[in-house]
Amino acid sequence: VVYSVSPTSGLTYVSGSSGGTGIEVLNADEAGIEIFPNPISNRISFSYSLDKSKEVSAALYNLNGQMVQQFFDEEKSFGANNETFNLNSDIASGLYIVQVKMDDKVFFKKVMAN
Known about the structure:
Low-confidence stretches: 14-23
Structural class: mainly beta
């Protein structure tokens, strides 16, 4: 798995299914994945709908591409899903990237922690 970080596009994922020849940024908002509030302080919430049960994971990354907190990585059920998690107390203020994986697709959203 290869990631690239830039101030304008954030964290990007090189898709292994395409042979690693292209970089694609998939916006979580455009996919109907709500991540809120933004800015985040001590909690973060996820709201999304699935057309079938599938493996879903969500994690918070710093701008160096390092995972700072894993929220979940498990099979989620068909339909509407709403979840809220506490942030680790050692997360510093600043810009972060939330990565959500659903089967073979990866979605990103920039969030500010304060």
